[in-house]
């Protein structure tokens, strides 16, 4: 009996073995190795000396790290709500019975499957202050050119400048250059969220809408009392995933800004680019690994807070 059970268990473990090998080789072992790297003064030539938590303490006292973290927070605060609102709005429109619906859905999803490198290069051309399409469109309505990717001024300080209010740097808001990257990132990520919202909308039974219409509910009340509550699991999922994805922004900063990337004046240098710069441009691998782990802890804490605060309001059925 015991031998038979052992054979059955062995068969199960053999089925799991390929997935476990891949998980170990490409996830668990690299993570453990990164923990080791973060505890050393590790350069391109290898480990020089053990520093313990020295790299972590150095990162926490690094003003550029805090600057990159502030830029990342501005990026997340603007990108996630705008993307949520626009993707829900477009998904509701695409959920109607209109002609060429498949064509519209394809058009909105195309940016998602397009390479971030290609998209970044195209948007960099659009933002060109002298020959870019956006400044040409502004000139048609008699507005002056904008130095989209070259202006370090904060958005909030620009809005309040007529009132002669001087804000500290950390309250000045995202720079114009970071706003330009936010616009591109929202456009790039809309399609994925729209598809998820559409799936959520189509899972809402039509009987609820029909019963509410018989009771005299208008479009606003249908959305407020039926669509929004029943869509809350989808919205919660998109909120968490969009926040995590926004924290991982890197390629658009690397390609669209500079030289050097992260400019002007470091106002677009986000945490993931700062990690890359320290690890693979300056070859401070131990220092870079400690930045990555601190960023991981921040994302983990934010995700836990989102679950604790918002999940109780989600209606799963």
Description:
The chain is 70% helix and 3% strand. The model has no long low-confidence stretch (mean pLDDT 90). With 317 residues, the chain is an all-alpha fold. The relative contact order is 0.13.
Give the tags:
two-stranded antiparallel sheet; 317 residues
**Tally of alpha and pi helices:** 14
Stretches with pLDDT under 50, minimum 5 residues: none
Order of helices and strands: HEEHHHHHHHHHHHHH
N-to-C CA distance: 44 Å
Helix content class? 55-70%
What is the strand and helix layout of this fold?
Blueprint: H1 2-38, E1 40-43, E2 46-50, H2 54-60, H3 63-94, H4 101-113, H5 116-126, H6 133-140, H7 155-160, H8 176-202, H9 206-214, H10 219-230, H11 232-247, H12 251-256, H13 271-281, H14 285-310
Antiparallel strand pairs: 1-2
In a few lines, what is going on in this structure?
The chain has 14 helices and two strands.
